[in-house]
Predict the 3D structure of the following.
Amino acid sequence: MTYYRFQNIIKESVGVLIFCSLIAVLTGQVLYSMQDQFIAIPIFLVCVPVINSLEGNLGSIFGARITSALHLGSITSVSDEELHKNVAMSMILGVSVYGFLAILIYGVSPFLDLEITIDVMNFLAIFIFSGVILTIGVMCIILVTAFLSFKRGIDPDNTVIPVVTTLGDSLGIMSLVSMIWVIGI
Amino acid sequence: MGEIIVGSFFGQLDLEKLPGLIVLVPAIIGLRGNISVALGSRLGSGFHLGVIDFSHSWKKEVKENIIASLFLSSVMSIIIGFFAYGTCQVLGFPCMGIHFFIGIALIAGFVSGVTLSLLALLTVYVAFCRGYDPDNITGPVLATIGDIITIICISVASLFLIRVML
């Protein structure tokens, strides 16, 4: 008798995987609709995985802190001061990390054989603003998910991370695409 | 830093020869992360529960886990191929044939699945030997290395299919 069984693993994972794949494919369509711009300026393709994984990290840290605080009772409502401190800290962390990475990407791109045909200030503005929008969006998603699941008696630890990783990636690509569109290249 | 390497591979994909390839990229990377991190975390839990014990019998449990994860990778890759082709048709975007979508997704999904299953096993084993808690190590290791391996697999799969079919 074994503890893990093939059928159980498949049965329990397939639903959530199909849901996540569908969202990811739709995100891919957003990328595809901007493909010409991305091919013209490949440096933005470099940004896509960077922004996404960074948001995953920042989001999971923020999410883990919020869910722990809800469990401990140190955060009880949206107007809590403890929560405001956490939000402010994550924003500062987000902006500084995105700023640092923007400079790093711009610095290493000549060595990666990518042509830079874009103005430095425009690139920095696009990267940092999409990072800020993404951080705000992901924090809203985390707070809504955490508070809703807590109110319904569901452990937020089980809901926040899957929701953040799935929606965060889509939101990351959409904020980058919309910033490219707003600021222009 | 690892992600910048991923990005630079991404920048070098042959997107013009294979229209619609970019649709697959976030889906396959996301799938890889979901399946492999889940595998790593199951192996970690199995180790904590004592059902996976490297000094005695562990072959059966590990085998079930790895086969399930490879099966999921293959089936989900095919589904992703269909999704990508279908949404392109519905939205009216020009795209490559469905055999390219499914072929690239399946090759990239399966090859990266095999590599990452072995890596997950190795990570849990090394953590076990050194006395670390595998739960603290498998997630970050598999997520970061997984992205790099997956994007390399996608480029290789697409180059291979271009060579064979075009």
Summary: The mean pLDDT of chain A is 80. Chain A has one domain: 6-183. Chain A touches chain B through 49 residues (CB under 8 Å). The radius of gyration of chain A is 19 Å.
